[in-house]
Structure formats: C-alpha cells, structure tokens
Amino acid sequence: MKLYTRTGDTGQTSLIGGRANKDDVQVEAYGTIDELNAYTGAARAAAAEDSRMAGLAAMLEEIQHELFDCGSDLSYANPRPEQLKVTDEMNKRLESWIDELDGECPPIKRFILPGGTALAASLHICRTVCRRAERRTVALAAAKDINPAVIRYLNRLSDFFFAASRAANFRAGQQDTEYVRGADVFRGDS
C-alpha cells in the first residue's frame, strides 16, 4: 500500500461515509485533535525519559488512544450512536488523574506562566492546543450533530494538562513561575 493516494489533490478529504473540503469545520476540528495527539506524543516521550515522571508517560499514552477516539467520533459524515467511542467514563478517569497530580503540588494563588522544565512547557503547549481543539469542536457542534462527550472530554483534558505540567515541575524540583502583574486569584484550596 502506498502512503499517498492522490484523492486529496483537489482540496477534499475523506470522512467516514462522505467527503469534505480540507478547510471544512469538521476537518479542522479533528485535524486539531490530531495535532494535539502529536504534541502529546512528544510530551510522553519526554516523560518516559525521566524516572521522576513515573506513571505520567502511561497516562499520556492512554490519552493518545482516546484522542484517536475523539478524532474518530468527529470524522463521521453522519454519526450513529453505536459508532461513537468517547464516553463520560473517560472524564471520570481524567478527573481522578487531575486530583492525583494536583494533590502532589503546592496550592497556587496566582496565574502561572507556561514553562519550567522542558516537559512542563511541552504539557502547557498540549493544554493550549487542547483548548483550540475544544473551540473547533464547539464550532462543529453548532453546525452539525456530534458526540457531546467529545467537548466534555477536551474541556477536562486541558485541565489534566495543566495539572500534569505543575506535577512535572514539582517532581523535578522546579517552581512554577507566577504571573507577577496580577493579584491572588485562587483561594489556595486547589
């Protein structure tokens, strides 16, 4: 099998059960999720190289599989419920991971700047690309019926990336850098 098919040479691509222009809101949504998956893979590779990040690489690998599920759910021309893969059970597991990672870190009072270790910075990139994927998916949901669990998953996933970035810094002994031009905005109960 050849890697190129030439079927997209006219600016269209295949959906499951149809075709769409490559700049279609649907293609933009699942394409942004694909971009997020690539950044998540880079973060996973970095986490796997550091023994202090025990468990984080495995979490990121599971997330990569679930991002494929998200992309799959959004790539149907006419989705049927029995075809969809993303469920709210995935969100419950993400919430458990968020609580676990956040519990390792000192409370925050101010916004923090993306950065710290290379891994934490990579996870912040994942967070911002995840937010863009969420916005693209919300735009798609305004245009056609989609699996609403995908929006909830992406919303929770961006929180996971934030918690993971803080945990990566904490485990490496790197303090988060607070945004100094703002006031305390968190109550310290996080």
Strand order of the largest sheet: 1-2
Instruction: State the distance separating the first and last CA atoms.
Output: 51 Å
CATH topology descriptor: Hypothetical Protein Ta1238, Chain: A
Shape: elongated
Please state roughly what percent of the residues sit in beta strands, choosing from under 5%, 5-15%, 15-25%, 25-35%, 35-45% or over 45%.
Answer: 5-15%
Task: Give a short account of the largest sheet.
Answer: 2 strands, antiparallel
SSE run: EEHHHEHHE
Domain tally: 1
Query: What is the CATH class?
Result: Mainly Alpha
Kindly describe this structure:
Homotrimer. Keywords: ATP-binding, Cobalamin biosynthesis, Nucleotide-binding, Transferase. There is one protein chain. A hairpin with a 2-residue loop joins β1 and β2. The chain has one domain: Up-down Bundle (Hypothetical Protein Ta1238, Chain: A), CATH 1.20.1200.10. It has five helices and four strands. The strands form two sheets. The protein has a two-stranded antiparallel ribbon with strand order 1-2. Strands 3-4 form a two-stranded antiparallel sheet. α1 packs antiparallel against α2, α1 runs antiparallel to α4 and α3 runs parallel beside α5. It is mainly alpha-helical and 190 residues long. 58% of the residues lie in helices and 6% in strands.
